Amino acid sequence: MTTAPLKEYTHEELVGQPIGAWTSQAAWLVLGGIRAQLAVEGLTQPHWWTLNHASGGPGKWTRPTLTARLGKYDDLGTDFDRVYDDLVARGWLTEDAGTGAMTLTEAGEAARIRARERIAPVLKGAHEGVDEADFVTTINVLRRIVANLGGDGNLPE
């Protein structure tokens, strides 16, 4: 992916730009790219979230706790039980019969790594031409906007 040149604007021209329009467009492009790459693997973004959480916390998550965690990020009306059932059916996720704790299998971890490799160019492209310090500043500005509007501006734990 190559960085497209940007036209230069004055401070006065930029200061009044609608933050919602720019953040929405960025989100649509990033999410669209990620979702398109995941679809190649037959996955949705909620599948990806589940694989990552199960990998990062083996045995930590149950269906109710993970659904509560992920539901606030879902904009697709996802039936998370169907996602979990699908991952179990693929042999990528197991659930403890007693506790319901979910754990990735070796095949699930391999699928997570494949998916991560698929979406890496999208994420790299989003960062191309953006100085790391500017990226951090942007994240902090967006966190502040979220908090100012009543959302949780803290990083997910």
What is the molecular shape?
Answer: elongated
Structural class: mainly alpha
Give the amount of beta strand, in percent.
under 5%
Order of helices and strands: HHHHHEEHH
Report helical residue fraction.
Answer: 55-70%
Number of helices: 7
Give, in spatial order, the strands making up the sheet with the most strands: 1-2
**How confident is the prediction overall: mean pLDDT?**
94
For the biggest sheet, the summary is:
2 strands, antiparallel
Assembly type: single chain
Radius of gyration: 18 Å
Say how many strands there are: 2
Low-confidence stretches: none
The separation of the N and C termini measures 31 Å
Account of the protein in words:
With 157 residues, the chain is mainly α. 62% of the residues lie in helices and 4% in strands. The chain contains 7 helices and 2 strands, in the order αααααββαα. It has helices at residues 11-15, 19-40, 45-56, 63-71, 80-89, 106-127, 132-148; strands spanning 93-95, 102-104. The protein has a two-stranded antiparallel sheet with strand order 1-2.
Provide a brief overview of the structure:
The radius of gyration is 18 Å and the shape is elongated. The chain starts with 10 loop residues before the first helix and ends in a 9-residue tail after the last helix. The chain is built from seven helices and two strands.
